[in-house]
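User: Hey, my collaborator sent me this sequence without any context and asked if I could get a structure. I don't really work with proteins. Can you help?
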Amino acid sequence: MFYILAILTEDKMKINFNTHTPQFNTLKKKNPYFKPIQDSVSFSGKNLYLEAKKLPPESFPSPKLRKEILSALEKDKNANIIQIQKDYYHDLFNCETLEEAQEKFPELKKVKNAKDIEEPKRGRGVLKEVKSGRYEGLTLENFSLKLVQLHYAEAISFNTKTNQDRFFGISLTCMNKISKELSIPMDKGYRDLLAAKKQYYNTINQFKNNELLRQSASQRLKERWQNPAYHEKMKQVSKEQWAKPEFREMMRERSVGNWENPEFKEKMVRLTIERWQDPAYHEKMSQLAKANWQDPIYHQRMVERNKALWQNPTYRKTMEITSKASSLAWEMHPKGKEFLKGKVKEFPILPFILNKENKGIPLDDRELSYKLSYYKACEEEYPTLKKEVGQLQKEILSQWGFYEKDRDIEKIYEAHCK
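Assistant: No problem. I've predicted the 3D structure and written it out in structure-token form, which is a compact way to encode the shape of the chain:
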């Protein structure tokens, strides 16, 4: 998604690599299917959390709201701060007067009541029209309260054309003037913070709902990746990003959060199964694995990696637990066990090849082909075996508490592997 978004705008779009937040100036030039959603956002930075933290405390409407926003952004760089503001000021809708709203939210005490302004410096015509009853549902008594509800509880900016249909029929220019006269507008730095997040969500939604835009972006992405210079550039960018501890931690948290979502987990499992059932993909991955293991550098790296992993007591015990569960699963599936025994007899050299591979000795072409032939024969004759045994293993591990968030590997190992 990130790289496709980058393609949408060529050089007119600035990408924030930590938050993936796009900031637009004009997007029509390169892509005829894209229509800018709102005016350009002046906010920029490494990520919203850092930039929010840099803002002076007085930039936020209230200290309590600032605390909630910073706390949310620290936990999740993509937290919806617009919704946080809406939830924070939701009680404004229960207020019947401006005075009641100011009692609940002291930060609104600076807001002036429209009925108390006799000679406004700005927006004089608007107040006259409100007083005359031109705008349905608006009176001088409730005008300030309505604007406060709009601006704070609905997070509607008085500076953006896309919100004009929410202004009771009042023009954008007049709304700007009268809101300043009533001391309602928020600090510019805080407004830009909200706008950056809003624009990010709007852009993602537009991308999802525009088939022509997706097709165009996909085609241009393919063309770019065929350029060696671009490929090398993005490789370097990725390398620099992953070298940053805060970026790695952010990606780790995001991955953990995704896999804790049952819908995401189910979708990824389904896509993986579908992909491996494709003969072309299966063959491609087989050839890739074969080529990798024939590369001395790759082979040495994997050997060293495996040695380092097995020197970790927790990893070793985790592997023993899954191995024990696998053995029990095969014991619970006598039909599959008998099938494999018969199949191994058809491939008598297989145990020697697997033993050689487990010792870290590279396989030659003939041995690798022999092993792949065995796997292919098993899959063709008993396609559901792997899934059936895997399900049994999963049930065993689940009973042991292996998938629990706060699992205790030591405790599981003591109970089932000793």
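In plain terms: The beta strands are 13-16, 21-24. You can pass these tokens on to your collaborator as they are.
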